[in-house]
Amino acid sequence: MHLNEKRGHGVTILGAIGAQLSKPVFLLAKSTKEDFVKVLFKMLHEVVNPNPSLPDIKTVVVLDNHKAHKTPYIKRLA
Description:
alpha+beta; two-stranded antiparallel sheet; 2 strands; globular
């Protein structure tokens, strides 16, 4: 995926890659808000550990200092 200066304003891309995923997961939105980050976490939880009877798979979450990543709810999820 290649993004350049002409990609537009207000485009947010959240994504995930990992050995447990059959392919990368990406979400696109006009802006980053807490609800959007919650959707990504929910998707990852369902994909990475779909069978509750199996032990949890360790997952690393990388977030930057965006204000939507620092809400109390998102911190608990991470």
